[in-house]
Amino acid sequence: MFYSYIKLIEFLVKEDGLMDNRPIGIFDSGVGGLTVMREVMEQLPYENIIYLGDTARIPYGSKSEQTIRKYANQCSSFLKSKDVKTIVIACNTASSIALNHVQKNFDLPVIGVIDPGARTAASVTETGRIGVIGTIATINSNAYQTKIMEYLHDAEVIGIPCPLFVPIVEEGWEYSNVAELTAEKYLDELIEHDVDTLVLGCTHYPILRNTIRKVVGPNVKLINPAYETARDLKKLLTESEMLNENYDKPRYEYYASDAPERLRRIGGNFLKKEINNLYEIAIDNL
Amino acid sequence: MFYSYIKLIEFLVKEDGLMDNRPIGIFDSGVGGLTVMREVMEQLPYENIIYLGDTARIPYGSKSEQTIRKYANQCSSFLKSKDVKTIVIACNTASSIALNHVQKNFDLPVIGVIDPGARTAASVTETGRIGVIGTIATINSNAYQTKIMEYLHDAEVIGIPCPLFVPIVEEGWEYSNVAELTAEKYLDELIEHDVDTLVLGCTHYPILRNTIRKVVGPNVKLINPAYETARDLKKLLTESEMLNENYDKPRYEYYASDAPERLRRIGGNFLKKEINNLYEIAIDNL
Predict the structure, then answer these.
(1) Which of A264, A254, A275, A274 is nearest to A78 (CA)?
(2) Would you say the CATH fold of B115-225 matches that of B2-112+228-280?
């Protein structure tokens, strides 16, 4: 009886748009999206979150577009089955290739990391010369380049794929001479082109931020799409009255499609927080 | 009628053990196994070969053992469907984890790359101090370490995972200062332990051979399991009278479970040969 009252109140409050305690769903091909989750946890500290790392099929970066769309669909289906109120595609590759596809297939708000990063880059650049770094697939997809030019027609955007950055971060070598030399090799062309803004277009790259800063110098604005995405998400939830206004300690759940222990071990460095409530799922069958 | 005679002769010759023109099947999680195929092409220049790169699910290195066994089974089923006479698991991760499993499930000779590399290392070392480098999964599986000690009980084997080597090779940076610094970082411990033999326990590493040689010095024996595996394969086919003694130009076919163009582009550097007869297949359904 008491429970029914609680449920009724919850329902009324929710219908009033004052409270929606359903979790936010976030997925990525692996651990990288945890940098996005971290920003969401900081900016939306009362939201319950479900994170899915599709570690069985990482990296998406070297897969075909058709395959990436299929994977993004399966990840979204899993999150939907957990009754999430919104989906964040916290993977640049999947955002660049599968966002429209997922938005079309699921009847809930879906946001990716490309648009927030691109919009911010277009708004803060002074010279219009913008660099984008990311995986081979993200850069080849031209997603950031195209999106930035939608916001700033005469922008000059240079994309550089940096495939070594991910394993450098996963080795914990972000402050090593290997990281610095690699960054110099990759970023040299951007420095020559005198970009004034640089988008860190891969979820692993914020961890290399200091090394990248050292190489590009103090005057280049570094854009972290994870931060901008969390800002957009907060705006979306606020405007559509979907914030959770239950100020209890939120619940965080983590799912990995393979080798969850690896997610726990490496993920801690991304999340700056211990990973508990971690479960393994079979993603192929979804 | 003429065709029937040919078939009859082929049958008789084959039954006599003088000729078996069925192809050799080789699979790997991606392009790396092409260094094994290259050795097989050199040492067995009349054999037809079918290569399968499971590029849709690369890398195996970060997957669980159960998943790797499933994938190896699916790759072997595909090759079996192409009527291969033998299967080479040209992937250290899959060899270390799934060889017995595949041998049990398929009624044809199956060889991996671990045993040939381990046996050679055990036989050429003088001090008994042997280093093994490979992916995280290969090293953590202890497959080389265990196998070397089967051949040489009192060997002292040190395994070092080198996850940056694969992307360095795939970037074409094998002669760069990044490659050298990375090799120094990884191999330092082996040099300190004064190993006299080093197993290149990942199919990508032979391409870094010169850089590794520079770092470890001229006195360390470098073992390339791809070369040793091709030698074992030649011995196996000779002894079981399964060599193809039709000395026509052999046929090479390549299959990729995703993004075949990437296999063609990067694979050329591994094979030192242009890749034609390349097809895409759906591996999940096997």
Answers:
(1) A254
(2) yes
Nearest-angstrom CA–CA distance, B232 and B215: 29
β-pair partners for A130: A157, A197
Among the listed residues A50, A91, A139, A169, the single catalytic one is A91
B58-78 burial string, b = 16+ CB within 10 Å, else e? Answer: bbbbbbbeebbbbbbbbbbeb
Q: Which amino acid is at A8?
A: L
Place of tokens 């895409």: B280
- Please confirm whether the linkage preceding A59 is cis (ω < 30° from 0): yes
Q: What is the pLDDT along chain B (286 residues), one digit of tens a residue?
A: 555 665 555 555 555 545 899 999 999 999 999 999 999 999 999 999 999 999 988 888 778 889 899 999 999 999 999 999 999 999 998 998 899 999 999 999 999 999 999 999 999 999 999 999 998 888 988 999 999 999 999 999 999 999 999 999 999 999 999 999 999 999 999 999 999 999 999 999 999 999 999 999 999 999 999 999 999 999 999 999 999 988 899 999 999 999 899 899 989 889 989 999 999 999 877 6
Mutate to test the interface with A, among B182, B264, B280 (most CBs of A within 10 A): B182
**A120: which DSSP letter?**
H
A33 neighbors A110 (Cβ within 8 angstroms): no
B162 is catalytic: no
Q: Which CATH number fits domain A115-225: 3.40.50.1860, 3.40.50.1000, 3.30.2020.30, 3.40.50.300?
A: 3.40.50.1860
Q: The pTM is what?
A: 0.83
Contact residues, chain B, for A57 at CB < 8 Å: 57
